[in-house]
Amino acid sequence: MKTNLLFFMVFCIMGGTARAQSPEEKRAQKMMDSIMENMPEDQKAFMQQVMAMGEKANENRTKERAEVRKAQEVKNRAAEKKSEDEFYWRNTIASNTQGKFSNWPYGKADIKVRFSNGWNKPADYLKVGEVSANGQVTLKLPNIDSSKWPRTPIEKADNEGDGMWANLESLAFSNEEVTYFSTRFSLHILRGEEELGNLKIGNAIKPVVNLNSPCCIGKAGDGYTAHWMYMSQGHSIQGAAYDNGINGSEGEIVHDLKFQPGWNLVKVRVEGTKGMTANATSRTDYWKNKYYTATTSLPTDAKYYFISFVNK
After folding, report:
1. Exposed e or buried b for every residue in 226-265, given b needs 16+ CB within 10 A?
2. Helix (H) or strand (E) holding 207
3. 278-308 burial string, b = 16+ CB within 10 Å, else e?
4. pLDDT in tens, 8-36
5. Mind listing the pLDDT tens digit for each residue in 27-65?
6. pLDDT: is 185 or 103 the higher one?
7. Beta-sheet pairing, 179-182 with 172-173
């Protein structure tokens, strides 16, 4: 009996009362219940104390394991955040909302749009602004000479080639013959003839990178990117369509573009995260809704993002 009693005391101290019991432990428990019924009060009090110690020890171990898991989760999140930051901010800096880069290391530079008139021809450059020696961005968008700077009819725009789904049947074009000149993918920073990098516009790093990169164009990340387009005439593009991609069918793409003649800022905004379908090919989160709008001025929360080609 003393042996069984000792076994049960050890069992209690090790926390066995808080988990499923083995057959041996159940027999010990049954024996202990019988012993406790006939045990003197002082011994019963002692056994109750032992049992309380076991429960407390188990609680402490459970708490310790939870703290270890929590600490590991924090460490994992920090590692994921570091990896994500390294991906999105690789060779990239952002201005403030006044268009000023702090600690700009490249001196005075020109902002130019690169445009090629055909294959195997050298690129032409159209100056559209400057970055001062202290990092202040100033855009001076010029009038476009259509004889020198060819523009594409809006109806011939490729699928998202210039930030608009111009081939969607659901879209209504007020004037399909209007022509445009786009700065998307072609806004470059040059110091003399040296190309330093690209300039992007937006309010958050994720949409700026994702929506301008073939690898990441569907990735989630609330916010917008934007680019300037020159329109030969005022017109509108309106309509909506549901997204039926393999990585999730919910969500919609909305166009509400009202263009003025001359320069317009096309704003492409994404929000939300769509649910994945059973046939999803990726575990990446994808944006749910996408909105296209146009304005003639830079939003107050917009920043410039410079992606460097030069190690500095």
Report:
1. bbbbbbbeebebebeeebeeebbeebebebebebeeebbb
2. helix 205-210
3. eeeeeeebbbbbbbbbbeeebeeebbbbbbb
4. 554 554 444 445 567 777 777 777 677 76
5. 777 776 777 677 777 776 777 777 788 788 888 888 888
6. 103
7. unpaired
